[in-house]
Amino acid sequence: MAMQLKPILVVEDDPVDREMIELAFNRAAVEHPVVTVSDGQEALDYLNGAGRFHDRRLEAVPVVIVLDLDMPRMNGHEFLGLLKTQPDFALIPTVVLTTSECNQDLIQSYANGANSYITKPGDFEQLIEIAREIGGYWCRINQLPGAR
Amino acid sequence: MTGMRPGLFQRLAVHQKVILILAITVLPVLGMLVLYVATIRHLQAVELEVDRFFELQLQTEHILEQIVDVQYGFRGFVLTRDEKFLVPYYTAEESLAPTIHRLKEMATGNEDHLRRIGDLEARIRSLLQQKRRLIDDVRLGQMKPVRDYIESGEGQEALNQIRSALKDFVASEMAIRQSLQDRVDRLATLSVYGLAGGIGAMVMLWWLGGRLLARTITGPIAALTESAQAFDISGSRRPIPISSADELGRLARTMEEMQERVSDHISQVDAVHAIGKDVNAIGPEGLEAVLKRIAELAGGVLNVDLCLVLLWEKTIGCWKVGAASGHWHALLRGSVMVKEETPIAFAALTTGAPQVVQDLGAVNQVVLQVRDRLGGKSLLVVPFLGPQGAFGVLSFAPTREKRAFTNWDVCLAQQFADWAAIAILNGRLYEAAQQRGEGLQSRLQQLERYAADMAHDLKGPARRMAELASLLQLDYRGRFDERADRYLAWLKDNGQQLMARIEEVLRLARLGTVPETVEAVDPAEVVKDVLNGCAEHIKRQGAKVRMADRFPKLACNRVHLFQVLDNLVRNALKFSMEGRPPDLEVGVRRAGTEVALFVRDNGIGIPAADRERVFEPFERLGHKDVQGTGVGLAIVKKIVELYQGRAWIESEPGHGATFFFTLPLYGELPALEAVREKVRS
Description:
Structural class of chain B: alpha+beta
Strand content of chain B: 5-15%
Number of strands of chain A: 5
Radius of gyration of chain A: 14 Å
CATH superfamily of chain A: Response regulator
Strand content of chain A: 5-15%
Oligomer: heterodimer
Number of helices of chain A: 5
CATH class of chain A: Alpha Beta
Shape of chain B: rod-shaped
Shape of chain A: globular
Distance between the termini of chain A: 16 Å
Helix content of chain B: 55-70%
CATH architecture of chain A: 3-Layer(aba) Sandwich
Radius of gyration of chain B: 68 Å
Strand order of the largest sheet of chain A: 2-1-3-4-5
Number of helices of chain B: 18
Largest sheet of chain A: 5 strands, parallel
């Protein structure tokens, strides 16, 4: 492929989850590369090419952000709030992938501009299924502005 | 007694009555005294008269003796011509004048006697003159006229005449003396009868006087004493039986008034006492309501339209209006008054003594809040006294007209304020305790939050455990032995179960922590959603489900109603009787004003002793084999209680159970509004 595919940005503080999500995307044969960061602050750093991501390639803007909610430093809600204030990145689709089934979290996520809300399943095979769906829908079917 | 003219007598004053009674009692004594004085005087007069009479008799006899002596002397002279026989004649001639004079003296005032004496004197003188002429003839020796005189018996006759005149005179005097004697005798008799009659009358009058005295003085005093002793605050007032218009009558009226006043005052005190107790009852509304009640009830105590409860705020050095009576409350509550504009209230606060101003208009003060802003005409301020002195005041300020507060008013107001002060202090303590309680509550909530946070934190590892187990199963299938595969499967199942339970607990914990929107919900739709959710379950168990045609709309959060019905339906399916397919009914029951939704099953039922406990979290009542987390009914109860509803069970063990719950009806609110509209128009 001549052009590198845009990455999927996974924001997840737990290393086990990080590895399993990455693995799940891998098993689901999603072609897009997966970039993992451990909290909202790092995610912002990645987007802005700051901190340890100062040498990130300009075109490597995520195609979709997979976001955990409960994180140290900057949690998912705070990140979402800030993301939507940045014109360059406000339109990046965000899928919340969290353990919480709390209605309040759902409401707040959508209110902050999340595009999808998925509860972590507790079964790896279902996780693969979720990764496949994300890869299929948000990376291929869904059309994004300025992507052509 | 009754014969007395009561009208006149009753009108007399007590001292007049006493004088009258004394007069009546003393009168007979006086009468008797007069009688005796008269008798004595008469006796004295009679005695004098008797003395005079004897003297008179003596004189007349003396005169007679002399005349007789003259007669005999004259005869001796004629016979002997001896001069010595003329001595009686000369003596008589000499003593006649003084004797007659003496007689006249004694007869002074009695014309008849004087005349008689004059006549007698004339006779004696004529006799003596004749004798002198004859004596002269004898001396000259001319005996013939003397012989003629003696032979004629003229001298003897004159003597007889004089004797007879004297006799008459004495008889007349005797008659006078006798009449006097008779009068004295009569008087003596009279005085004897008078004495007896007087003593009788005296006894009578004394008895009369005693009765009058008893009737006018001692009787009323006894009645007064009895009335005073019988005085009882609760008993009905009986008039004191004294009808006279005198001092005692007035005293009786005064005493009746006094009793009236005393019982009035006591009833007022009782009223204040009752009000005070009422004030002291702290309701769920707390101090605020206590202050309001004080302001309202205070107005009733003294019948004053404006009453203010002013609380002194030490920290800012001014008044805060705790409450006010009537429409003033909304206007003034919580507002602040500076002490410069409320000097009278401030005086009551600092001195701890009631302050009274009859005419606020006359107070020389540029600004007086109560006068200038509220229109008070008079003012009575009593302090609220606490253990550390006054902490506020109760102000009575009639705005319609000036009022002279009496000592009794002040006394009542202060007593009421004392009650109110206790109520306020209690209210403050209660509030403080409430706040402490709320503090405790918030700490409990904090604990609940910690528990929820912990559960939340546990859910991640549980999920990861299950996911990792399933990853191992997927990636390493066949590489372990069969036993390891089984263990991995268990690990995954247990992890997932743990997740599910934690999620249930979180659901329970989350209830009521965030405000949910309340809307009109049709239970029928929610029931359908629930049944759809359980469709697979129902099919598997071969359950029959019936549902009411119509439900009343409820005012609640839709998700809440869903959770309640979902938990109840799943619960009913879960606790079915073995070998008997579940038969469920979802419906409505109206009992009185209460409308309850219910879910009925034909399952195993619940014994009476457990019907409360099943609503507690994690109580599965010994059905460990039944799947579930044990919080489903706890969620139901918590949701229902969020809406001040209730949930309960009616059951016959072995024949199923019916779970009832109430939630607010949507229809009620608009209906109420419609009624209000009607009332307004």
